[in-house]
Write a structure and sequence with these properties.
There is one protein chain. By secondary structure, the protein is an alpha+beta fold. It is 27% helix and 24% strand. It is built from three helices and four strands, in the order E-H-E-E-H-H-E. It has a four-stranded antiparallel β-sheet. Helix 1 packs antiparallel against helix 3.
């Protein structure tokens, strides 16, 4: 699995517009791309910077998106971004949420294995 990590500097006071545009216009573009797995987007406190991480089944599909549909995404977001986003592609070496080439993520700890004094309702790996 590969991740595209994008750092985006926003124009002032546009975080709500960015969020709405991203959900309604960018995510549908991503879902149409071969190998797209997931998107996780974070706002830095203050709302002037966003980190967007898209997950891809392999490097080739992440790179294919970069050389095709990514320009459309930049066009869609042009009204809310300031400058050129910084993009890095990296291999996912571990995820507790997604299966990776290293194997499946572990499940919850069996209740019988939870030490005394630990809230059994919230004990997970």
């Amino acid at each position: 699995m590969f991740a595209r990590n994008i750092s985006i500097h926003l124009k002032p006071n546009v975080l709500a517009d960015f969020t709405q545009t991203f959900e309604k216009e960018v995510v549908p573009v991503l879902r149409k791309q071969k190998g797209f797995q997931d998107e996780i987007t974070f706002s830095i406190p203050g709302g002037s910077e966003v980190i967007a991480i898209s997950l891809w089944d392999n490097e080739e599909n992440a790179e294919a998106y970069n050389s095709t549909a990514y320009s459309e995404v930049l066009r869609i977001l042009a009204k809310v971004i300031d400058g050129t986003p910084k993009v890095r592609i990296s291999e996912v070496i571990h995820s507790t949420f997604h299966k990776t080439t290293a194997g499946a993520a572990p499940g919850p700890i069996p209740v019988s294995a939870v030490p005394a004094g630990v809230n059994k309702a919230v004990a997970t790996v």
